[in-house]
Design goal:
With 399 residues, the protein is mainly alpha-helical. The chain has 17 helices and 5 strands.
């Protein structure tokens, strides 16, 4: 890490660290420990305030539309799948979106798919626990990270604050063959009681009501920066940190349903995203990061709203298609709702969700296949899994 970049002493401290490399021997360097987040908003330029206001307006439009849906939770799962695919890609774990949408949750075909699906499981669990009253705490964050990493090579080191020093990235100008810590782009806080205390301070700050002092979009940006800079876990920090953006907006009442998909916009601008985060630590550039973050939330909310409206339109048209057929069972409409909420599914999953007999669900699936509402995936690849082609097209458009 280039220590000369850290020019703003108010943003944190550089603490000495040392260790030993099996090949290169002993090393010494410094790690950056961010200062606790302030109780007041950073100083922002007028154009940044406008960007924050635009983000709030787009988030309000998204939430208003979600509130008007008969069943807002209908679109939660496909939104989480899309977010899982994109947020994992940002960290180097790539699986095509269509593969994520059509994956067998119980038997993912690749380690990459398993990691992506772990995010869906983690986010669903986290949103449920917070809505049931569980506070954001070190324990909560640790349990979420444990779910995210289950089944991976680092599973045994997960579910708790990291106990070893880590480094992030590599500087483009770093010499070949030197110590990794010297070549790193960023070296976060050393492990130990201080890191745990800093994470506890952040969790308490996120639980605090900042109304009247800091705009919720700015709160989400500041909390995201602090979490990523602390880098408190062995792995999964980026994915967990972006999950916390939506969780913070829910906590502040800006959103009532976690359908916001934030990571595709950041994934498309990953170099600037990482640069903006680092510039807060090195130069105290809150304004640049918050303006960037607010533009991202606005674009994410607008895109999520467009996709939400498209899915609702597809849902309506598929039901019209059923009405125009000889199928008269209300359960056929319920199966369409299920196919929108679950981009691919088995007859068993539909049976459990719709409280119908397996035979009845199989018959309905066959009828909907006959009129072109559903299709079966190729047996050799997916077994008996089904999907609505128009739903899949709406979810994958633009990827």
């Amino acid at each position: 890490m280039d220590l000369t970049l850290f020019q703003n002493e108010h943003m944190g401290a550089l603490l000495p660290i040392k260790g030993s490399d099996a090949l290169l021997g002993d090393w010494a360097h410094k790690a950056f420990v961010p200062a606790p987040l302030p109780s007041q908003s950073p100083s922002l330029q007028g154009k940044t305030f406008l960007a924050v206001a635009d983000a709030r307006a787009s988030l309000a439009a998204l939430d208003s539309t979600a509130r008007q849906l008969p069943n807002p939770q209908l679109l939660r799962y496909p939104a989480l799948q899309r977010e899982a695919q994109s947020t994992s890609a940002l960290e180097g774990t790539y699986a095509p979106l269509e593969a994520v949408l059509t994956a067998d949750e119980e038997r993912p075909r690749t380690p990459e798919l398993m990691e992506v699906l772990n995010y869906v499981l983690m986010a669903n669990s986290g949103f449920h626990e917070v809505t049931q009253g569980r506070p954001i705490s070190v324990s909560f964050l640790s349990s979420m990270q444990g779910i995210l990493m289950q089944g991976t090579p680092l599973a045994e080191e997960s579910g708790r604050v990291r106990q070893r020093q880590v480094v992030i990235g590599r500087r483009a100008d770093a010499p070949i063959g030197g110590f990794p810590v010297h070549a790193a782009r960023f070296v976060p806080s050393p492990p130990g009681l201080s890191l745990e205390a800093s994470l506890r301070d952040l969790a308490d700050w996120m639980q605090t009501d900042h109304a009247g002092e800091i705009d919720p979009v700015v709160v989400a940006a500041m909390a995201h920066y602090q979490f990523e800079t602390l880098h408190p876990f062995r792995d999964g920090n980026g994915r967990l940190g972006r999950f916390l953006i939506v969780l913070q907006l829910l906590h502040a009442g800006v959103l009532t349903e976690p359908t916001l998909t934030v990571s595709p916009w950041f994934e498309a601008r990953r170099a600037e995203y990482y640069d903006r985060l680092l510039a807060v630590s090195t130069d105290g550039d809150w304004d640049g990061f918050i303006a960037f973050f607010a533009r991202g939330l606005q674009a994410a909310a607008d895109q999520t709203l467009r996709q939400m409206n498209e899915l609702v339109q597809v849902q309506s048209e598929l039901k019209d298609q059923i009405r125009a057929s000889s199928i008269r069972a209300d359960s056929a409409h319920a199966l369409v709702d299920f196919a929108v909420a679950n981009p691919s599914f088995t007859a068993k999953r539909a049976t459990d969700a719709l409280n119908l007999s397996y035979q009845r669900v199989n018959k309905l699936i066959g009828q909907l296949i006959e009129i072109g509402v559903l299709e079966q995936m190729p047996e050799q690849s997916y077994g008996r899994r089904f999907f609505a082609p128009r739903v899949m097209a709406a979810l994958t458009r633009g990827t």
